[in-house]
Amino acid sequence: MKLKNRIISAAMFDSFLEGNKISEKGLQKYENLAKNDIGIILTGGTSVSPFEVPLAKGCFRIDSDKFIDAYKPLIERVHKYNSYIFMQLTHAGLHSKDNIIYSPSINKGFSQDKNSIEMTKDDIIKIENDYAQAALRAKKAGFDGIDIHGAHLTLISTFLSVKYNRRKDEYGGSDENRVRFLVEIIKKIREKVGNDFVISVKLDSGDEKEGINENGFLYTAKMAEKAGVDLITVSGTDAMKDGDIYYFEKCKKLAELSNIPIVCVGGIKTYEHADYILNNSKVKYISMARALMKEPDLILKWKHKK
Questions:
Q1: CA distances to 45, 102, 169, 221 from 212, in Å
Q2: Short-list 48, 201, 50, CA closest to 131
Q3: Hey, how many other C-beta atoms are within 10 angstroms of the C-beta on 13?
Q4: Is the CB of residue 94 less than 8 Å from the CB of residue 153?
């Protein structure tokens, strides 16, 4: 992939799916980002597994072949402006509103007042396969890559947490075991999509109160790279004060240790922020969400200013 710049539009929650089509409003949102010179655009979190009760009306899903064609008009509009687009794949886990809430151990759900189940080995394998099939559907639809959402206490993130993952089997009890679910997902996706399709992953960089420490994060990133990802976005559950670049120091540390590009996200709002990151670390890409939601033409303004 030859990108026109180092800017990525981060995943923002979408509610534009109407049956098996994306609404015109949704198509216009993505077209507006592409025509304003964004290098890579990520969709909002897209469900890899079927649900009975969606997180919100119209949220994106790719859990069946019937959704493949829904995204083709979206991709056409983005490609028209020579931008790339990735589908972010996710499983809600404890955020789910379904009757069954999946989690590595029994935990209280975030979106409803009931407990999760502790996933069996069969549950784990099924959801790993759901991710692999979803990635293949995304490739068939025409996406340029996929982004695995392994942050923000979605299902993968809770597997990586000592707070939410208290398993005693091969999927818990150590960093090596906690990352196994993610590593198996990456390997199964790569087997399905081949080597000419980009796989990125978004990871929590550490939040002790949520059971994710920095050493665990660095180990997870290392194992994800070894398993075959092409790109890592460093995120987290701990929001910083306004004016900070949230996760820069952890991005900087990971970029020193990695052989693949690292993406910095969180609190980046100005040209000076972006310029500082790229000139004071080995971080390769800048990812923004709210800044581009407020000013879709922000990157064009930066270009004309400079």
A1: 21, 19, 19, 13
A2: 48
A3: 11
A4: yes
Q: Do residues 158 and 93 touch, judged by C-beta distance below 8 A?
A: yes
- pLDDT, tens digit, for every residue of 178-236? 999 999 999 999 999 999 999 999 999 988 899 999 999 999 999 999 999 999 999 98
Task: Round to whole Å and give the CA distance between 7 and 186.
Answer: 24
CA 27 – CA 304 distance, rounded (Å): 26
Instruction: State how far the Cα of 135 lies from the Cα of 138, in Å rounded to an integer.
Output: 5
DSSP string, the chain: ---SSSEEE-------EETTEE-HHHHHHHHHHHHTT-SEEEPPPEESS--SS-SSTT--B-SSGGGGGGGHHHHHHHHTTT-EEEEEEE--GGG--SSS-EESS--B-SSSSSBPEEPPHHHHHHHHHHHHHHHHHHHHHT-SEEEEEE-TTSHHHHHT-TTT----STTSSSHHHHTHHHHHHHHHHHHHH-SSSEEEEEEE--BGGGTB-HHHHHHHHHHHHHHT-SEEEEE-S----TTS-TTHHHHHHHHHH-SS-EEEESS--SHHHHHHHHHSSS--EEEESHHHHH-TTHHHHHHHH-
Among 64, 65, 45, 42, CA closest to 55: 45
- Stated pTM of the model: 0.97
Q: Which of 247, 217, 223 is CA-nearest to residue 235? A: 247
Phi, psi for residue 36 in degrees, rounded to 5: -100, 25
**Closest alpha carbon to 85 in 147, 173, 175, 18:** 147
Separation between Cα atoms, residue 85 and residue 31, nearest integer Å: 11
CA angle (83, 85, 88) in 5-degree steps = 155
| Contact between 136 and 146 (Cβ < 8 Å) | no
Residue 101's pLDDT is 98
Q: Is the Cβ–Cβ distance between 218 and 175 less than 8 Å?
A: no
State the CB neighbour count (10 A cutoff) for residue 52. Answer: 9
